[in-house]
Specification:
By secondary structure, the protein is of the alpha+beta class. It has 20 helices and 24 strands. The protein starts with about 55 loop residues before the first helix and ends in a 19-residue tail after the last helix. The N terminus is likely disordered.
Length: about 650
C-alpha cells in the first residue's frame, strides 16, 4: 500500500434553484470578493422622502365647501322666507290655469214665445304657444305649419295666427285664436289633430290647439226685426237694439274654473275649483212676429218701388201702448254684419228726426177743440193764399176760396185753414204759440218716448219764445220741428185711447234662470185731452179716409171704419242741411169707433212715382192694418161712419 493517498472525488454541489427575476442578490459570504457595480462608487446616498403637511389644503377645501353651503343657505332663506309668497305665486301661476265659463245668454222672443234670438253651442279655439316651439316639436317653424292648417278652417289670416302662436311673451301659455266657432269647426280641427297624431313620422303641429266651450248668437228669422233686436259683438256684448239695451239682464254672470295642467292638459288628480256661470234672463218683447213680418215686407217693397232712401212702419196697441211691430227698410241681417250697410244698422224709426208734415195737424185740431176755440163744424174760409209774417202761405194745390168746416180743413189737409184755426188759441199770436206748444209737449213731442232705446232721438221742438216768424205759422201744420216715427204713432194712439197718452213699451217682461216671469213695469199714463175731444178728433179723422174729398181714401178697409191722416213734408237732407225731397207719411187707427190698432208709415225721399203721403203710404197702411186686424181677430166695425160735413154753403 503506497504511502500516497488516493485522490478524492469531487461531488458536484447541488444545483441552486433559479433566482426569481428582480430578486435581490444574495450577499457574498465572508472573505468573498465584493462585486463591483458600474458607477456604484459615484452615486451619493439618497435622502428619505418627507410629505408636506395636509392642513393648508384641508383648510382651503373646507373654506370652498363652506362658501358653497353658505350660498345654498342664503338662496334657501330667500326662497322660503324672504320671497316665499312671490315664488309660490309664480309656481301656482305656472301650474294652474284659470278659464272663464261664459254664461249662456238669455233668449229673446216675441209676445207669443216665438224665438227671435237664441244662443247655440260654440267654441273658442285656443292654444298654448309654448307647445309650438322647438323644444316641444323639434322643429323651428311649428307656428307657421299650424297656422297654415288652421287659417282656412277658421277663416282667418295666416300671418295673424302665426303672431298669436309666437307671442312676444315667451312664457305665455294661452292664446285665443278664434271665438264663437260652430261645433262643426271644432270637429274639423279635432279630426285633423287626431290624424296628425296617428301618422307615423309626422310632427303633430296641432297638439297645442284646444277649445273652450262657449256660445254664439243666432237670429232664426234673419233680418226680421233686426232693428229692434240689434246684435252681439265679438266680445259677447250687445252692440245695438234690445241686445244692448238689456245687455246686463241677457248676459247673465260669467263663472270661472281653475285647474292644474301639464303640457296644456288638465291633471285630473290635482283637483279643481269652479264658480258656475249664471245664465242670463230671457226677454219677451211686445211685438208680434207675424205683424212684424207683414210690416217689414210692405215697407221694403214700397221703398224699392219708390227708390226711396228709407222707410219705417210702426204698429201699436192703442189700449196698452205696446209696440206690435217696428219695421225699417233697408235693414240688415244680424247673423252676418259683414254684408250690412253701416247706414242701415240701428233703428231708423227711433233714430231719424224729421219734420212730420200734415200728420201733425191732428195735434193742432185737438188743441183747438180742447180750448173750445172751435168745433168740428165751425166754418173756416180758406183763401188761395194767406200772408202771414214774412211769408205767403198756400196749400198743396191751387184752389179757389174754400168754404170748409174745421172737419173739412183736416179732411182736405189745408195748411191755410190750420193756420187760421190755431190762431184762435190766443188773443195774440205769441199767446196762441204758447198754448199750442203746451199741447205738443203733452203729446210727447221734444221728449224721449220712454223706451230708453239706444240711439233714440227726442226730436227737436224749440220753446215758443224762440220760434221764428215763419215757425209760428208752419209748426201748426207740421214743419219747423222734428219727431221720430214712434212719437208720431204715439200721437194717434193717444187720440185712439180717449186722450190718454201711454208711454210706448217694447218689453213685456223677463224670465230668470229660476223660470219665474217678471212683468215689465207699468208704463206711465198722461191725460192730454179729454175723452170728448179725442172722440171728436177721431170722427174728423174718419172723414180723411171715408169722404170722397179726403186725402186718405186709399187707406179704406172694407168692413171697418178707419181714422187716418196723410202727410207730405219738405225733407231736410242730412248731408247738406237743406230741403231736398219729401217725407211722405200716413197715420191712423182702426176700428175708428172702438180703436184697437195704430199704424204709422213714413217714407223718406221717394224719387220714383208719386211722393204724396196718401199715394204711397196709404196702401201700406191699408195692407198692414188689414193683416193686424185679422191676426188679432178684431171684429168689424159695428157703428156707421160719422159722416161729418167737409164744407158748407155760405
Amino acid at each position: 500500500m503506497s504511502d500516497r493517498e488516493p485522490p478524492r472525488r469531487r461531488v458536484p454541489a447541488p444545483a441552486k434553484p433559479p433566482r426569481p427575476r428582480g430578486a435581490a442578490q444574495r450577499q457574498p459570504g465572508p472573505g468573498a470578493r465584493p462585486v463591483r457595480r458600474p458607477g456604484a462608487g459615484r452615486v451619493p446616498a439618497q435622502r428619505p422622502l418627507r410629505l408636506g403637511s395636509p392642513r393648508p389644503r384641508l383648510r382651503l377645501v373646507g373654506l370652498a365647501l363652506g362658501l358653497v353651503l353658505l350660498t345654498f343657505v342664503v338662496r334657501l332663506l330667500q326662497v322660503q322666507a324672504v320671497q316665499a309668497g312671490t315664488y309660490t305665486a309664480k309656481a301656482e301661476q305656472n301650474r294652474y290655469v284659470v278659464h272663464t265659463l261664459t254664461a249662456e245668454r238669455g233668449g229673446i222672443t216675441d209676445r207669443n214665445g216665438v224665438s227671435l234670438a237664441v244662443s247655440e253651442d260654440a267654441y273658442d279655439i285656443t292654444a298654448d304657444p309654448t307647445m309650438f316651439g322647438p323644444g316641444q316639436l323639434k322643429i323651428t317653424d311649428g307656428p307657421e305649419r299650424a297656422a297654415a292648417l288652421l287659417a282656412p278652417i277658421l277663416g282667418q289670416d295666416q300671418a295673424a295666427l302665426v303672431k298669436k302662436l309666437r307671442p312676444a311673451d315667451k312664457n305665455s301659455r294661452y292664446a285665443r285664436l278664434a271665438t264663437r266657432q260652430t261645433p262643426q269647426v271644432w270637429k274639423q280641427i279635432k279630426d285633423l289633430k287626431s290624424a296628425l297624431a296617428k301618422k307615423t313620422g309626422t310632427v303633430n303641429v296641432l297638439a297645442g290647439v284646444f277649445a273652450d266651450p262657449s256660445s254664439q248668437r243666432v237670429y232664426p228669422n234673419g233680418d226680421l226685426a233686426a232693428g229692434i233686436l240689434g246684435w252681439v259683438n265679438a266680445a259677447g256684448q250687445g252692440g245695438g237694439g234690445i241686445e244692448q239695451m238689456l245687455d246686463k239682464q241677457l248676459a247673465g254672470k260669467n263663472g270661472k274654473i281653475r285647474y292644474a295642467q301639464s303640457g296644456g292638459r288638465e291633471v285630473p288628480t290635482a283637483g279643481s275649483a269652479e264658480t258656475p256661470a249664471v245664465p242670463g234672463s230671457d226677454v219677451e218683447l211686445t211685438i208680434d212676429r207675424d205683424i212684424q213680418w207683414a210690416a217689414q215686407n210692405a215697407i221694403t217693397e214700397q221703398v224699392k218701388k219708390s227708390k226711396a232712401d228709407r222707410g219705417y212702419v210702426v204698429v201699436q196697441d192703442t189700449r196698452t201702448g205696446q209696440i206690435l211691430a217696428l219695421a225699417n227698410s233697408p235693414g240688415f241681417d244680424p247673423n252676418d254684419l259683414s254684408e250690412a250697410d253701416p247706414d242701415a244698422l240701428g233703428n231708423a224709426a227711433l233714430q231719424d228726426a224729421y219734420e212730420p208734415g200734415s200728420t201733425a195737424k191732428v195735434m193742432s185740431m185737438a188743441a183747438v177743440l180742447q180750448e173750445n176755440a172751435a168745433t168740428p163744424l165751425t166754418h173756416v174760409v180758406v183763401p188761395n193764399r194767406l200772408h202771414r209774417g214774412d211769408r205767403l202761405f198756400q196749400d198743396d194745390i191751387d184752389h179757389r176760396t174754400w168754404n170748409l168746416t174745421l172737419n173739412g180743413v183736416l179732411a182736405k189737409s189745408s195748411n191755410i185753414g190750420t193756420i187760421l184755426a190755431t190762431g184762435q188759441l190766443g188773443k195774440t199770436q205769441p199767446e196762441a204759440n204758447k198754448v199750442l206748444y203746451s199741447y205738443l209737449r203733452k203729446f210727447g213731442i221734444g221728449s224721449y218716448t220712454g223706451l230708453h232705446f239706444p240711439g233714440e232721438t227726442p226730436g227737436i221742438l224749440a220753446p215758443p219764445q224762440k220760434w221764428s216768424t215763419s215757425q209760428q205759422y208752419t209748426i201748426p201744420f207740421g214743419q219747423g220741428f222734428s219727431i221720430n216715427a214712434l212719437q208720431a204713432a204715439s200721437v194717434y194712439s193717444t187720440i185712439a185711447n180717449d186722450g190718454v197718452r201711454i208711454e210706448p213699451t217694447l218689453v213685456r217682461g223677463t224670465k230668470g234662470a229660476d223660470g219665474r216671469f217678471t212683468p215689465a213695469p207699468k208704463p206711465k199714463e198722461t191725460r192730454v185731452v179729454s175723452a170728448k175731444t179725442a172722440r171728436s178728433v177721431a170722427e174728423m179723422l174718419e172723414s180723411v179716409v171715408d169722404d170722397e174729398q179726403g186725402t186718405g181714401i186709399s187707406a179704406r178697409i172694407p168692413g171697418y171704419n178707419v181714422a187716418g191722416k196723410t202727410g207730405t213734408a219738405n225733407r231736410v237732407d242730412p248731408a247738406t242741411g237743406r230741403y231736398r225731397g219729401y217725407t211722405s207719411s200716413f197715420a191712423g187707427f182702426a176700428p175708428a169707433d172702438k180703436p184697437r190698432i195704430t199704424v204709422y208709415c213714413a217714407i223718406q225721399n221717394a224719387t220714383s212715382g208719386g211722393y204724396f203721403g196718401g199715394q204711397i203710404c196709404g196702401p201700406i197702411y191699408k195692407k198692414v192694418m188689414e193683416f193686424a186686424l185679422k191676426t188679432l181677430q178684431v171684429p168689424p166695425t159695428g157703428a156707421p161712419p160719422a159722416n161729418l160735413p167737409v164744407d158748407y154753403k155760405p
